[in-house]
Structures are given as C-alpha cells and as structure tokens.
Specification:
By secondary structure, the protein is of the alpha/beta class. 49% of the residues lie in helices and 8% in strands. Helix 5 links the parallel strand 3 and strand 4. GO terms for molecular function: glycosyltransferase activity. It is a single-pass type II membrane protein.
Length: 351
C-alpha cells in the first residue's frame, strides 16, 4: 500500500498532475474496510507534499460524478512510458485512474520525480494520530531488547506460492486447499526446481532452525509481525519461547475491531523501530521496512535465504552440517550486501 502510494506520487509528478487521495481496495478475507485517513495523517501528508505534488482530498464537483478513465500501468517501466502513453489519456479525459506498476524503473526517473517519490515515502507518510498512539503503546509493551520477525506462512501465501509441504496438520492442509482456487501446486521435477529457486515460504519450524543456525539465542524476545491466519506457529514457539504478538499485548474492543491495514501499520511501526529485524520473505513490507531502517541507521536487518535452505536440504544436509552451511551462506550474503539492510536506493540523492 505504501509502495503503490509512493509510486502514485512519483507518477503524478512526472505527469504534472494533481493527486487525489486514493481509496484502498476492499479485501473480505482481511476484514478490510479502512480508508486512507484511518491509517495516515491526511493533513500532514498534504502539507509535506506541498511544493512537490498537489494533493486534494476529493475530486472537484464538476468531475466527481464521472467514472475515471482507467489506464493499465502494470507493465510500464520508466519516465517516457508515462509521458508518451499515459499523459495523452490524462489530457483527453482530465481524470484517470492508474493500476499499480510492479515493474517500475524508479531509478531512471528525473530528479524532480525522484524527489517527490522519496518525500512521500520517507517524510510525508506518518500514522494517523489515534493509530500512532496505539503503535507507541504496543512498542512500549514489548520486552526489550527484541527482534521483530516478519513470518509469512498464511494459507493464501502458501497457496499463491504453488508449493507443497509434508508434515502439516490437517487444519493447515484444509486451509491451504480452500485458498488455492485454480492455483494447483507444482509436482515432480517442476516442484523441486521451484523450491530450489527459493520460491517456497519458510515454515515456522524451518524459520526456527535457521535462526538457531545463525546463533540467535532461543531466549530472544521476538515480536511476531504477522497476520492473524499464521499456520503451524508451534514450530517456532516450541523453540523460541519468548514470542509476543500484537494481539497478546493489546487488548480491548478497539483492537479486535481493527482492520487488516491498520494492524499491518502496527507491525510496520514496530519493525522500523525494533533492535533487529528478520524477514522470511522479501516482500513489499520487508523492502519498505529495510529501506526505512537503513535511513534511520538501523542495520541489524536480515532476510533469511529460502534458496539456500532449499539447496542445502536437497543435497542431503541435515543437523549440524545444515546449520554450518546456512550460517556460512548468510554470512557471505550479508558481507556482499545481499539479504541485508542495504537495498538499492536512490533517495539519498534527493532527501
């Protein structure tokens, strides 16, 4: 959500367009109905973007009743794609809606567009006052020092990966099957190739094993930054016993009634302020957290290597031999800046 919003700011600056505060997609399985103002401080965002991009809360009355002309930006990559292909639609229709662009080349933007995008990402987006109060309360309640662990092993995540796992409980298997839809798991040689490419999410048990291989003590205070549907959690908590979650630290009706976006915002706030951050899947949140932590000078950030785990286990490594191989692999990656808190970032040029 943060990534798409920052991209929208960059695109608006490229097109010299006014940005209307976006409406979030509704996801029934996340119990989702929150809006921009439920998560972010609207007035602060508009003030901070002044001089970069004009932002308005609502559409002008003369076009508010019209449906926007929809432009698919999912394949667009750089500055000239937008100017040559999207700008004509904006000039013709005056009001367009763009889809998120997963494959943008933000590093190729002109400096004025980079400046707007980075201002949005690192300065203009702050939590709404009520949500910031909850986030601060949560951060204060976590035993210190602590590691924030972003663990991804929810049914929809596993179904999307098209991976199969042995040894899961019947409840987990049923949940995954219900989430699969048309995405059938890979089988045979294709399944082995897929797993060796690091495409399969780490289970909580595998995560605990890698943490031990990296000599992270089992009495470490761990904040679990994860959704409500996490499966097989006992694989982690049976080894690392000091694990806390937002639901265990925050109680009351105001928390139970929170939606997916606002809960994710709590995890984000805790993660960018934690003593260390470990992610099991290099997703959008992980990239945003790593970049923000690097900006704040917090470099104890690590992404666990699914590829290394799959490669070594396929070669028959186990026990202490597997632990030694994983330790060396992660050490070498970290030294080379792979899987660490140093993502490619151009924002230092413009902040």
């Amino acid at each position: 959500m943060r990534r798409d919003l920052c991209d929208g700011v960059g695109i608006a600056r490229l097109l010299n367009a006014t940005l209307v505060l976006p409406k979030f997609e509704v996801a029934a399985y996340w119990n989702e109905s929150s809006g921009f103002a439920d998560v972010f401080d609207v007035e602060y965002f508009i003030r901070q973007m002044n001089g970069f991009v004009k932002v308005v809360k609502e559409l002008p009355s003369e076009i508010a009743s019209k449906e926007p002309f929809r432009v698919d930006c999912s394949k667009r990559r750089g500055q000239f794609d937008y100017i040559e292909s999207v700008l004509p639609s904006l000039l013709e229709h005056n009001y367009i809606s763009i889809t998120p662009a997963m494959s943008q080349r933000r590093d190729r933007y002109p400096l004025y567009a980079k400046a707007a995008l980075c201002q949005a990402c690192y300065s203009a987006l702050r939590l709404a006052r009520s949500l910031k109060k909850k986030a601060s309360k949560l951060l204060e309640a976590i035993p210190k020092p602590f590691l924030s662990l972003h663990l991804r092993f929810e049914p929809d995540m596993v179904a999307y990966s098209q991976c199969e796992y042995s040894g899961l409980s019947s409840a987990s298997i049923n949940a995954i099957e219900a989430a699969r839809g048309d995405r059938k798991p890979w089988t045979g040689e294709l399944a082995r190739i897929w797993r060796k490419r690091g495409r399969c999410p780490l289970t909580p048990n595998e995560t605990a094993f890698i943490l031990q291989a990296l000599s992270i003590p089992t009495n470490t205070n761990i904040y679990l930054a994860a959704g409500d549907g996490l499966m097989e959690l006992e694989g982690l908590t049976s080894v690392y016993t000091n694990v806390v979650t937002k639901s265990s630290l925050l109680t009351g009706e105001d928390f139970t009634s929170m939606h997916g976006n606002t809960k994710a915002a709590l995890d984000y706030h805790v993660s960018i302020n934690s003593d260390s951050y470990v992610a099991t899947y290099f997703g959008n949140m992980d990239k945003m957290v790593a970049a923000m932590r690097a900006l704040k000078g917090l470099y104890k950030t690590l992404f666990l290597s699914r590829r290394a785990f799959a490669e070594f286990t396929s070669q028959g490594f186990s026990g202490k031999d597997l632990m030694r191989a994983l330790w060396k692999s992660h050490r070498d990656n970290y030294v080379m800046g792979i899987g660490s808190a140093l993502p490619d970032c151009f924002c230092e040029l413009t902040l």
